[in-house]
Structures are given as C-alpha cells and as structure tokens.
Amino acid sequence: MNAVDMAKKAYGSNVTAVRTPRSIEYAAFARITQKLRAASSDKVESFSALANALHENRRLWTILAVDAADKDNALPQSLKGQIVYLRQFVNLHSSKILRGDANADPLIDINTAMMRGLGQEARKE
After folding, report:
1. Could you tell me where the DSSP H helices lie in 1-125?
2. Which of 3, 40, 93, 99 has a beta carbon 3.0–4.6 Å from 104's, enabling a disulfide?
3. What is the pLDDT of residues 21-79, one digit of tens each?
4. At CA 108, angle to CA 103 and CA 109, rounded to 5?
C-alpha cells in the first residue's frame, strides 16, 4: 500500500456531507414515507410495522406543527396554519387507518408533496 492509498484510507472516512435543515427534513419524510408504503402494502401481515410507521409519521408532523407554532418561526402565517392543519389531518387519518377504515395513500401523498417542496427549496439554497 503506497502513501496515497494510506492517506485515502485514513482521511476518506472523515469526510461528511454538509446537511441543511431542509435536507434533514427531506430525509425524515423520505424514510417515513417509505415505511408507510412498505407497511401499507400488506396490512394484515405487517400491522405492527404499519402502526410503527404511522406513529413515526405522527411524531414528525407534531414536531413540524410545534416548530410552526413557535413565535420565532419566520414562516408566513398562512403556511404555519397549513402545517398545523395537516398535523391534525395526519393524526385523525392515522386513527382511521388503525381502525381499518382508511388506507395510507393520503398520508403518502401529503408526505410526497412535502418532499417535492423541500427538494425545490433546497435547490434554491
């Protein structure tokens, strides 16, 4: 092994990508949305996975709503209201899914729309 290879090995693993708040939010939505898709494809065999994915999705939306409600949040008031409304919808719709009265498609659609928006904003930065 020559000096260049040794340097690559020693320093290569220390390189980390710079992550913006938007990219972190996007990654959270992507991870949870994938879990929702996978678990909702077979509700009978993976009810616990579906319940877990719904719980994580509710937590994500609660975090977003709490952040939007913060007085120091610079988002426009109308967008803050929409986030709080979506959190309420996610909560209610998740309960319907757990009762077997609905499917996860609307939640997946909402999360996917959020990911598109976050992706567009990240490209502007």
Report:
1. 3-12, 21-40, 47-69, 77-99, 105-124
2. 40
3. 889 999 999 999 999 999 988 755 688 999 999 999 999 999 999 999 999 999 999 99
4. 110
Q: How far apart are CA 122 and CA 21, in angstroms?
A: 9
Nearest residue to 54 (alpha-carbon basis) of 97, 115, 89, 84: 97
pTM score, two decimals?
A: 0.80
The whole-angstrom separation of Cα 80 and Cα 4 is 52
The yes-or-no verdict on residue 19 having pLDDT over 60 is yes
Can you tell me whether residue 52 is helix, strand or coil?
Answer: helix
